[in-house]
Amino acid sequence: MKNVSFQSEQTHPNPPPLDPDQEDRSTSATKFEWDFSVSAVVSSSVAGGNISDTLGVVEVNSSGNLFATGGIARKIRVYSLNSLLSSSSLEATLFDHATACHYCICTPAKLSSLKWKPGSGSQVMGSADYDGVVTEYDLETKMPVYERDEHSGRRVWSMDYSHWDPVVGASGADDGTMQMWDPRHDGGKCVAKVVLGSPVCCVEFNPFGGALVAVGCADRKAYVYDVRKIVDPVAVFDGHQRTVSYTRFLDDHTVVTSGTDGCLKMWDIEKQHMIRTYKGHTNQRRFVGLSIWRNQGLIGCGSESNQLFVYDKRWGEPIWVHGFEPEGGRRYEDGFVSSICWSQEGEDECTLVGGGSDGVVKIFSGKRKPLT
Known about the structure:
This is Anaphase-promoting complex subunit 4 WD40 domain-containing protein. The chain has helices at residues 81-85, 97-100, and strands at residues 2-4, 9-11, 32-43, 55-60, 66-71, 75-80, 92-96, 101-106, 111-116, 124-129, 134-138, 143-148, 156-161, 169-173, 177-181, 190-195, 200-205, 212-217, 221-226, 235-238, 244-251, 254-259, 263-268, 273-279, 290-293, 298-301, 307-312, 320-323, 337-342, 349-356, 361-370. By secondary structure, it is mainly β. The longest helix is centred in the first third of the chain and has 5 residues, at 81-85.
């Protein structure tokens, strides 16, 4: 391990909203800025990352002490977030995947999605892959304990577990369907299916325990369904100009979507009304990640400009931008930030994990301080 410093950052502590009327007037007169810094970097070698190890997903567990990565290398790597952050330094600490990884599970196909199973004590992880298979792994034995292949061999882009009934899962794939399954029912066969007619890029259940699931599609729309009666959607969000690649719940009543039109949008579920648009990052053809730190309403996403962007839900412009350029390593011309996930722990301090197309993982620490 060695220490390296990073300079490619931009901070906008109090950016103007896209429209003065859009700003959340319920916030107090005192606004806050966030100071972010790179705390740790994990790469394929001390010389930089490896383009053959492009990361497709980063997932932090509910306790905020572990995170997992997956991608084209056909490996689930699990890391101790606490261990990587334990080195107290003003500079980021550089690790190698081989030594930083807590353990690794080899998978038969490239991975597009990972989810920690709720209620399993972070001992079970679900995955979705390019071969159209959804698999659950017991992380103690590092063995698959459940597998389903009902998307006709088409690539599964996303899977998630319900927090309303944690045994139930859902997946969305290139076959144009969102499917829900229950291992207690008929060997885990499909218990509900929505045929959307175009590739389903994202599926996310309401993480607050409600009976809603949000679906993003290549038809430029996002849909919200009530899982108790999946017939017609309870909301349809039509505002993106290109594929909706991610859907994320901000709270019980609000969803944020990401599109390959290069913008994020926040929606009111009940009113089916767009609240705000977020612009600044570049996204035209790739999955670049989307995650929300729900405690404080911070939104993170990647960019095809090989930068990581952080937005405050109140403003349409980014409050922080960080370049993902390798330190002392080879620069890839087509490099981009491909995955991102917040730890949901903390109130005035936060942790954000991002992954790049060169396989590099960066861990960011943020602190809030009042402006005078």
